[in-house]
TrEMBL record:
Gene3D superfamilies: 3.30.470.10, D-amino Acid Aminotransferase, subunit A, domain 2. This is Branched-chain-amino-acid aminotransferase. InterPro entries: Aminotrans_IV (IPR001544), Aminotrans_IV_CS (IPR018300), Aminotransferase-like (IPR036038), B_amino_transI (IPR005785), BCAT-like_C (IPR043132), BCAT-like_N (IPR043131), BCAT_family (IPR033939), Class-IV_PLP-Dep_Aminotrnsfr (IPR050571). Belongs to the class-IV pyridoxal-phosphate-dependent aminotransferase family. NCBIfam families: ilvE_I (TIGR01122), PRK06606.1 (NF005146). It comes from Candidatus Desulfolinea nitratireducens. The gene is ilvE. It catalyses: L-leucine + 2-oxoglutarate = 4-methyl-2-oxopentanoate + L-glutamate; L-valine + 2-oxoglutarate = 3-methyl-2-oxobutanoate + L-glutamate; L-isoleucine + 2-oxoglutarate = (S)-3-methyl-2-oxopentanoate + L-glutamate.
Length: 305
């Protein structure tokens, strides 16, 4: 992976090589960081880059900071502006992924959240697909369990919680799967290692509720709105049993990195007829047009760089 040229670090845009922390940094030792993942897409008709829902991403980011007792004099708007400044300085003219990170920056020993200094950084880099087989993914149900809200809240997008995602993803990939779905301690479907999940049963689109130890995804919220408004579908949030995944008509995942990824096989069982279904296909078409600022109805989601 090519490293970025610039980073926003300690209050300024600096060459990426200068964006470094010491090994005693609290977040590096204890996982006390929180992060975000935002994409900017290029519209190939006018050549411009557009951030997708950055205010929503930064609202969630600041809420994650709040949960971890990190306070910054920033707003979703100011963080979006910093991102635009960084993208302009970097001169990107392709699709990019943006990684804001807030971290406990004190170089010290001591496991706690209070009385520890915090800082934040932003980096951006060119980015394509995250899940290679995004129209025909084969996933497994992980033997790992999702972190519970009372262990490390998935809602908080907390760096340390991603050790859980890393266990899930690596075991899945080393067993030849594209990704894994993970269950809650109670045995309900939660999400993917870095994606929210949806099933379609009898024309109803169903996704685990926000109380199922999921990250409250921006892509999740977007496709829920699109399914209702554009496909006229009933969209339901409720607990989903494991075996519903084996008998559903369609299954797909959503995320900033994974976008809308159709799952066509789970643990060697075909989903529906074993091919990407019509709901996932239509949502993908809508989504890819919208993120590239080609659908004026949803232009409020596109922030020009
Ligand atoms: N769940 C997890 C665990 C994630 O890391 C992500 C990626 N941010 C998502 C869901 C999807 O969220 P979003 O659509 O906001 O990217």
């Amino acid at each position: 992976m090519d490293l970025p040229q610039y980073a926003y670090f300690k209050g300024a845009i600096v060459p990426y090589a200068e964006a470094k922390v010491g090994v005693l940094t609290h977040a590096l030792n204890y996982g006390t960081g929180v992060f975000g993942g935002v994409r900017a897409y290029k519209n190939d008709e006018n050549g411009k880059l557009y951030l997708f829902r950055p205010y929503d991403h930064y609202r969630r980011f600041l809420n994650s900071c709040k949960m971890m007792l990190m306070e910054f004099d920033e707003t979703p708007e100011s963080l979006t502006q910093l991102t635009i400044d960084l993208l302009k300085k970097s001169g990107f003219s392709e699709d990019v992924y943006i990684r804001p990170l807030a971290y406990k920056s004190s170089e010290m020993i001591g496991v706690k959240l209070h009385d520890v200094e915090a800082d934040f950084s932003i980096v951006a880099l060119p980015f394509g697909k995250y899940v290679a087989n995004d129209t025909n993914a084969h996933v497994t149900i992980s033997s790992w369990r999702r972190l519970d809200d009372n262990v490390i809240p998935a809602r908080g997008k907390i760096s340390g919680a991603y050790a859980n995602s890393a266990f899930i993803k690596t075991d899945a990939m080393r067993s030849g799967f594209d990704e894994a779905l993970v269950l809650t301690q109670a045995g309900h479907l939660s999400e993917g290692s870095a994606e929210n999940v949806f099933i379609v049963r009898d024309g109803v689109m169903i996704t685990p509720s926000v109380t199922e130890n999921i990250l409250e995804g921006i892509t999740r919220r977007s496709v829920m709105e699109l399914a209702a408004a554009e496909l006229g579908m009933e969209v339901v949030e409720r607990p989903i049993d494991r075996t519903e995944v084996y008998i559903c008509d369609e299954l797909f995942m959503t995320g900033t990195a994974a976008q809308v990824t159709a799952i066509t096989k789970v643990d060697h069982r075909p989903v529906g007829n074993g091919e990407m279904g019509p709901v996932a296909a239509k949502l993908r078409d809508l989504f890819f047009d919208i993120v590239r600022a080609k659908n004026p109805k949803y232009s409020a989601w596109n922030i020009e760089v």
